[in-house]
Design a protein that fits this description.
This protein is of the alpha/beta class. The chain has one domain: Response regulator (Rossmann fold, 3-Layer(aba) Sandwich). α3 links the parallel β3 and β4. 38% of the residues lie in helices and 20% in strands. Strands 2-1-3-4-5-6 form a 6-stranded parallel sheet, with helices on both faces. The protein is globular and about 35 Å long.
Length: 132
């Protein structure tokens, strides 16, 4: 069965890059949300449900932290692997991301060569923090 990723990102170029990496290089399935309007309703409607959620911190109307809160608060989705993909992963932010309950953080731009191996680690329930 194909791994299914949900990528929540409002930048079209970033979406196209991620779509190419996941579909072409990794031969996996990806769903794109370009905003977080009606987020939980849209998430729960996905079939199949995502194995990994990749989310930009600065998405609207709900930011990455709010998206994570919604995911963790719902019984059906509370166990989902949620990884931040952002340009602003600094040491002080990493600690906040960890205590918030994210499963990892990756910086943009995505390293196309390393990304598939990093996702294998995520799928194996390993936490990934940029620089690991």
């Amino acid at each position: 069965m194909l791994t299914h990723y949900l990528y929540i990102e409002d930048d079209e170029l970033n979406c196209e890059v991620m779509k190419t990496i996941i579909e072409v290089i990794m031969e996996a399935k990806i769903t794109l949300f370009m905003d977080t309007t009606n987020f939980m309703q849209r998430l729960l409607a996905l079939d199949p449900q995502p194995d990994v959620i990749l989310v930009d911190l600065h998405i609207v109307p709900y930011d990455g932290y709010e998206v994570l809160e919604m995911i963790r608060a719902h019984e059906q989705t509370s166990h989902y692997k949620v990884i931040v993909v952002t340009a602003s992963v600094l040491a002080n932010i990493i600690e906040k991301l960890k205590t918030s309950g994210f499963n990892g953080a990756l910086t943009k731009p995505i390293d196309i060569r390393k990304f598939p191996l990093i996702m294998e680690r995520v799928e194996a329930s390993e936490e990934i923090w940029q620089g690991d």
